[in-house]
Structure formats: structure tokens, C-alpha cells
Design brief:
There is one protein chain. This protein is of the alpha+beta class and 213 residues long. The chain has a single domain, classed as Lipocalin, CATH 2.40.128.590. It contains three helices and twelve strands; from the N terminus they run ααβαβββββββββββ. The chain has helices at 2-24, 33-40, 47-52; strands at 42-45, 59-66, 74-82, 91-99, 105-111, 137-138, 144-148, 154-157, 172-180, 183-191, 197-200, 206-212.
């Protein structure tokens, strides 16, 4: 009888300790497109990097979610300008971000006609009133593919040599991206037909620190 009582007590202790152990196991983050969009939205600056390394420019980057009523992914207006000429951005794009069945993400890149008329739309969405998805041109081969890393950041880039570019004699362009709570690291480069880099940062990507939502 005593042996049965001891076994009963031990089994209860084992169950309790097992539950406690399972409760202490940290939850693994799952890929979430909403979390990614929140990290992408906002204003960013490479001012700190430029101050420490003259090979980099002080660039301002803004990304604003638009067309929130659409159900074909998440759309972002993107604007990039040199700090001293923020009223004349040198790059304006529309991104369409969506999550794939395997949990990874795609960010398609689109251009618009006469983009300077939309300059400043990140702070005044009314400027985009005349812009519609069917007026955009998708940049084939320039889609960025992202996956969530173990540390919760989102990393990835373009694939292959299909993103055409004729800037400074380039034949194609590539992009590498890391996105986390502190900001973005982006490395855009152009290569000629022989694979020689002809534009873009040489030593590494730009570090854009978040400056606002």
C-alpha cells in the first residue's frame, strides 16, 4: 500500500514539473506580414552612417502604407532623397507586399509616370489621389524575396540578374535587404554585362536608422 502511495505522489510531481518545464519554453516567433509592414512603414535616415564614413551620403527614406481597402496585398509608397534635396527625391516607387504559402514574403516593385508630382506623398496622402494600381508599371525581375530570421528580422533580396538597369552603363541591378525594429540595411548595386559593379555602395549597404513612424 505504501509503495502505491509513493508511486502516486511521484507521478503527480512528475506531471507538475513537466507542465512547469513546458511553460518555460519560449514561444517561437512566426512570420507575420502585418509585423513586416509595421517595420517597413516610417521615416529613416542614413545621417549617422554618412557622418562616420564619407563614402556614404546622408539619405532620407520614407515608406507609407496606402490603399488600405485593397485585398491583394499591402501597398506602400516609397520615397528616397538626398537630405539636402528632400523636395526632389531621386527614387519613388510603389511596393506591393504579400505573404506566400510557405511563410516567406514578396515585395514587388512598381514605378509611376511623372513621379515628382507625388513628391511628399508620405506626409500628404492626398497627393496620391490620382494614382491607381492599373497605372503602375511593374519592374520585372526586381521583386525582393524576404524570410524571417531567427532573431526576428526580415532578410532577403532580389534573385538572379533579371532586374534590368541602364544607369551608368549597368545591365542589371541587385538589392539586398535586412529589416528590423531599428531600421533597414539596404544594398543596391548595378553591374555591367561582365559582372563588374558600376554603381552603388562598394563596401556594404546603407544603414537607415528609424527616425519616426
Amino acid at each position: 500500500m505504501k509503495k502505491l502511495s509513493v508511486l502516486f505522489v511521484l507521478s503527480i510531481v512528475s506531471l507538475l514539473s513537466g507542465n512547469a518545464s513546458s511553460q518555460q519554453v519560449p514561444l517561437v516567433k512566426q512570420p507575420d506580414v502585418n509585423a513586416l509592414i509595421e517595420l517597413m512603414q516610417g521615416s529613416f535616415s542614413s545621417e549617422e552612417q554618412a557622418a562616420n564614413d564619407s563614402d556614404y551620403y546622408d539619405i532620407r527614406l520614407h515608406m507609407k502604407k496606402i490603399w488600405g481597402d485593397r485585398t491583394d496585398g499591402y501597398w506602400l509608397y516609397v520615397e528616397q532623397a538626398v537630405a539636402q534635396s528632400q523636395d526632389k527625391p531621386y527614387r519613388q516607387r510603389i511596393y506591393r507586399v504579400d505573404q506566400l504559402k510557405d511563410g516567406s514574403f514578396v515585395s514587388e516593385v512598381y514605378t509611376m509616370n511623372d513621379p515628382l508630382r507625388f513628391a511628399g506623398a508620405w506626409k500628404d496622402e492626398n497627393l496620391l489621389a490620382g494614382l491607381t494600381p492599373d497605372s503602375l508599371t511593374m519592374r520585372d525581375g526586381c521583386t525582393v524575396y524576404l524570410s524571417m530570421a531567427d532573431n526576428g528580422s526580415y532578410t532577403g533580396g532580389t534573385r538572379g540578374e533579371g532586374c534590368a538597369s541602364d544607369l551608368r552603363g549597368a545591365d542589371y541591378a541587385t538589392s539586398e535587404v535586412i529589416i528590423d525594429e531599428t531600421g533597414l540595411r539596404t544594398w543596391d548595386r548595378g553591374f555591367d554585362k561582365e559582372g563588374n559593379q558600376v554603381w552603388g555602395a562598394v563596401k556594404g549597404g546603407y544603414n537607415f536608422k528609424r527616425t519616426g513612424k
